[in-house]
Fold this sequence. Notes:
Blueprint (H helix, E strand, L loop, with lengths): L11 H15 L15 H11 L11 E6 L2 H22 L2 H7 L10 H4 L2 E8 L1 E4 L7 E4 L3 H18 L3 E2 L8 H6 L6 E10 L15 H4 L4
Antiparallel strand pairs: 1-2, 2-6, 3-4, 5-6
Amino acid sequence: xxxxxxxxxxxxxxxxxxxxxxxxxxxxxxxxxxxxxxxxxxxxxxxxxxxxxxxxxxxxxxxxxxxxxxxxxxxxxxxxxxxxxxxxxxxxxxxxxxxxxxxxxxxxxxxxxxxxxxxxxxxxxxxxxxxxxxxxxxxxxxxxxxxxxxxxxxxxxxxxxxxxxxxxxxxxxxxxxxxxxxxxxxxxxxxxxxxxxxxxxxxxxxxxxxxxxxxxxxxxx
Length: 221
C-alpha cells in the first residue's frame, strides 16, 4: 500500500547553509569517557531512541530493541561484567597492534562511566522475529540486513544524542553476551552496542584527533 510522499523542497542556497551548519555541529561531537551523574529528562532519552527507530531497515523489519538502563544496581552489574571482559581483552586477547592503536586514546579496562552516566542505552539486533500469535507454536520470521540496519539506527541515535546537547560513547566490550543475561533478552536478540548517555564532567579531557579530509574519504567521478 502506498501513499503520497510529503516532501518540502528548499532552494539551493538554503541547502548549502543547512548542510554546512549541520557539518559544523557534528564536527563538535566527541566520544566521552567521563560522565557526570547529573540527571537528564527521560523524555529526551525517549526522543533520541525514537529518532533511532525512524532509521531505514531491510524490508522495514526494524530489527532492533533499545534497552534503556537507569537502575543503579543493573548499571553496577553491567560495569562489573564489562570490566571482567575488558581486563581479559587488554591483558591477554588483544593483539599488540590493536593495543598500540588504542594507546593514544588512553583507554584501559576500567569502565566507571558505565555507572556514572545517568542512562545506558543498549542496542540489540534482532536476528529474527518471533510471532507468538500462532495458536500451536511460535512462528520465526527472518530479518534482512540486520547488521546494516542496526548500524544505521545506531548512527541516527548518536546523532540525535549530540543534537540534544548530550555526550555519548560507543562501547563494545567483547564478548557482550553478559548483556543478554543481565538484561534478560530473548534468544533472537544479540547485543550490538552499549552507549552511555549524559553530560561530560566539567574538566573532561579528550584525545587530540584528526579526521580525514574530503579527498581522503571520497572519490568523485
